[in-house]
Design goal:
Chain A is built from seven helices and no strands. Chain A has 116 residues and is mainly alpha-helical. In chain A, α2 runs parallel beside α5 (64-81). In chain B, 80% of the residues lie in helices and 0% in strands. Chain B is extended. Classes of the chains: A mainly alpha (116), B mainly alpha (147). The interface between A and B is large, with 73 and 74 residues.
């Protein structure tokens, strides 16, 4: 059942993105940025955690989960140690994603030549 | 030529896109990506005997690796042209943006090319993510009292 939920939620997010892309003059960069902000906003009142419980991986794959993880890491730390910890915990959970993206792109760009 | 006339002319020759078709393709591709992510997560949790929160990290790293590798082989661009948001909104789009920037600027050298331009497209995601997460976190702390 969770696979169906994952399919529905992730597909729904992509559908909204495609509708924004088709009906306005925003570029894909604008759309992804918008979705990160939406993800961070949804995490503010723990709505996104409930979505993750419902949709599982389907909520973790879209770029909204990036904003959620940024916000979540910062808030976890801030709940323990006060306002200044907002600065410390920001990349706690997203570190693996950003680091792996940097490492893979760096080394693969040394190996491969651009196509076209 | 007058501006309005020019505008009408441009609009006439802009290719019309089938919005319903695009939306359906994005829905199905994005949904398959989501289901695939969930499958990977459960497989990792099952085979390595780790909690699902750690398996999530593994899943995200795997998807980023797939996105980077397929961009290098050159056929990810064609898929993005076909599925559009179905592949841009999932985390593979983030990997694709970083990888294509790195590949494109590689000829300008290691430091001024790859180093300076890798975040050219994906940087806005991180910047706005951090700024919004900080702002919303601050608002939530102010509303809920400092714990």
């Amino acid at each position: 059942m969770i696979f169906v939920n994952a399919f529905l939620f992730c597909g729904f997010v992509c559908l909204i993105g495609q509708m924004i892309l088709d009906n306005t003059k925003l570029t894909p960069g604008h759309v992804t940025t918008l979705f990160v902000v939406v993800g961070a906003f949804l995490d503010t009142f723990s709505i996104y955690d409930k979505i993750i419980l419902w949709a599982g991986g389907g909520a973790l794959v879209p770029i909204t989960s990036f904003g959620h993880l940024l916000s979540h890491g910062a808030m976890d730390m801030a709940m323990d140690q006060g306002v200044m910890a907002l600065f410390m915990g920001m990349f706690n959970l997203t570190a693996s994603g950003i680091t792996s993206a940097i490492i893979f792109s760096f080394f693969l760009s040394l190996i491969f030549k651009p196509k076209d | 030529m007058e501006k309005t006339k020019y505008k009408a002319l441009v609009e006439k020759h802009t290719p019309k896109e089938n919005r319903l078709y695009n939306g359906m393709v994005a829905f199905i591709t994005g949904g398959l990506m989501g289901a695939f992510g969930e499958l990977l997560r459960q497989l990792y949790a099952y085979f390595f005997n780790i909690p699902t929160s750690e398996a999530t990290m593994f899943m995200i790293i795997t998807l980023i690796f797939i996105g980077c590798l397929f961009t290098c082989f050159g056929f990810f661009d064609k898929w993005v042209n076909f599925a559009k948001c179905g592949l841009i909104i999932p985390i593979t789009g983030f990997a694709h943006a970083m990888m294509s920037a790195a590949l494109e600027y590689r000829k300008e050298g290691m430091v001024t090319g790859i180093g300076a331009n890798m975040f050219k497209l994906a940087g806005s995601v991180i910047i706005f993510g951090v700024v919004s997460a900080y702002t919303f976190g601050l608002i939530r702390l102010l509303l809920g009292g400092i714990a």
